[in-house]
């Protein structure tokens, strides 16, 4: 049974949101059909464009984006499945047929729609209709969208996520999206440090793609969360926490929209560290009491920085609480000191778990040798109920596995291996592992992938047994370099290849 957020919406609110979603889809379909037979100055066309903007505005102000998607012969609005109803069956069929003909799986609308003139909406609808009549609708639509005429809407093509479905395309997309998220958080930090405003669109777009990959195969992105960059720790840490948080949120059954909000909160949870002196952040020795108090201010400073992001107030208001809470601890004994007795929010509890896990498994200036992922889980379990929500922590451990992806294993055959994927079907203590072979110059190259649960058919005994587990950094290994070979020649993401 999926966990539900603390402040779950009541039935009436859910019903209203579903009806609003239906209304938006009906108007989107009506816009496309009206543009087929009328000019842009026609009163009906203008009215439909205005209605569409009006209906979309509440969702855009609350979430920063509006998605319309088709998956498995069903329509989704904001990641929520449109219910089968006789009143909307014709619209459903029409839009599903439209998406199939165009070779797209949906559209993502951003807040620029609110400032767009009605004629821009009409011209988009007209361009879609023109593409439908072309010999290659998908190519025609792609050409139109790449021209940048419609900045308020993005077309989501199937190849962006599904590709050949051979695993490689998804891994390549995951690497690209990680790089995009990494660069977006760096850009946000630098702009805010210079007291310049910065929006959330770029970050939101990367999180949309990450959510889709997570919902399809979470193991793909869990491997990326092993990326550790000693020099740019805060930024890789922010992306890793975002990935882990969205993965945990997906495991407990959060909706797509909730996952994106959770991911955004996690991505910005340490934004306040741009206000901390670099010498303190990089100090190799023990912090003084004054220095530690300075560090402790970063949670509140994150809130201050988030408030100054260039985004709608409705969205900002949903982003500020979890970053403030992520060091409070489950029993409220952490920092900053608060006088309330209510539990911290669901998002705050999720981010707290993911923040500590990634921090424990990363080499730091004050702790050059990182803790192995399985040992980090053990340490966290010792503080279950005090530092962490015990139920969520169990979900997290079940999600990452006894030996999380990227854990370095020594095998009784003398081989070493990296955990590549958990074992969801059999013994969780025997994951799928990638063997590493010495390259003769002090490094390693990838060998074959093996299942540690495989047995020798002649003896019935396991072919390989784990002797010990370690952090990959002990051998100077960056797991993602081996788990994610550079499929695309233009992939250039420093932490991956340094």
UniProtKB/TrEMBL annotation:
PROSITE patterns in the cross-refs: HD_GYP (PS51832)
Domain of life the protein comes from: Bacteria
Residue ranges constituting the HD-GYP domain according to the UniProt record: 213-412
Pfam families: HD_5 (PF13487)
InterPro entries: HD/PDEase_dom, HD_GYP_dom
Protein name: HD-GYP domain-containing protein
């Amino acid at each position: 049974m999926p966990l539900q957020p603390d402040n779950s919406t009541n039935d009436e609110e859910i019903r209203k949101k579903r009806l609003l979603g239906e209304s938006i889809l009906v108007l989107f379909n009506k816009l496309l059909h009206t543009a087929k037979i009328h000019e842009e100055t026609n009163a009906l066309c203008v009215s439909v464009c205005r209605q569409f903007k009006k209906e979309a505005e509440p969702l855009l102000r609350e979430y920063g984006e509006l998605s319309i998607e088709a998956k498995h012969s069903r329509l989704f609005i904001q990641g929520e499945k449109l219910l089968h109803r006789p009143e909307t069956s014709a619209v459903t069929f029409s839009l599903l047929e439209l998406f199939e003909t165009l070779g797209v799986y949906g559209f993502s609308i951003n807040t620029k729609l609110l400032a767009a003139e009605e004629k821009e909406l009409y011209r988009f609808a007209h361009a879609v209709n023109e593409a439908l009549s072309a010999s290659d609708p998908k190519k025609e639509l792609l050409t139109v969208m790449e021209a940048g005429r419609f900045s308020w809407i993005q077309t989501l093509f199937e190849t962006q996520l599904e590709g050949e479905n051979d695993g490689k395309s998804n891994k390549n997309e995951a690497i690209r999206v990680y790089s995009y998220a990494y660069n977006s958080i760096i850009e946000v930090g630098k702009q805010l440090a210079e007291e310049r405003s910065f929006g959330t669109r770029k970050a939101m777009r990367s999180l949309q793609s990450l959510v889709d990959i997570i919902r399809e195969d979470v193991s793909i992105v869990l491997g990326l969360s092993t990326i550790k960059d000693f020099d740019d720790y805060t930024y890789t840490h922010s992306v890793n926490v975002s990935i882990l948080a969205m993965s945990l949120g997906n495991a407990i059954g959060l909706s797509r929209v909730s996952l994106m909000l959770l991911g955004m909160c996690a991505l910005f949870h340490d934004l306040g560290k741009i206000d901390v002196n670099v010498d303190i952040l990089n100090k190799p020795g023990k912090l003084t009491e004054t220095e530690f108090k300075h560090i402790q201010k970063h949670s509140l400073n994150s809130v201050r920085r988030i408030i100054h992001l260039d985004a709608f107030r409705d969205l900002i208001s949903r982003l500020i609480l979890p970053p403030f809470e992520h060091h409070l601890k489950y029993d409220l004994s952490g920092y900053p000191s608060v006088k309330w007795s209510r539990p911290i929010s669901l998002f705050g509890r999720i981010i707290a778990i993911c923040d500590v896990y990634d921090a424990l498994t990363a080499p730091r200036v004050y702790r050059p040798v990182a803790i192995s992922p399985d040992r980090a889980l053990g340490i966290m379990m010792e503080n279950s109920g005090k530092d962490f929500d015990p139920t969520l922590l169990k979900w997290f451990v079940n999600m990452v596995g006894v030996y999380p992806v990227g854990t370095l294993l020594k095998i009784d055959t003398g081989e070493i291996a990296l955990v590549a994927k958990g074992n969801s079907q059999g013994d969780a203590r025997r994951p799928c592992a990638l063997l590493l072979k010495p390259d003769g110059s002090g490094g390693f190259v990838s060998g074959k992938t093996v299942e540690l649960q495989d047995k020798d058919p002649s003896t019935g005994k396991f072919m390989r047994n784990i002797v010990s587990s370690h952090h990959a950094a002990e051998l100077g290994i960056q797991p993602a370099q081996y788990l994610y070979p550079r499929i695309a020649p233009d992939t250039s993401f420093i932490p991956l290849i340094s």
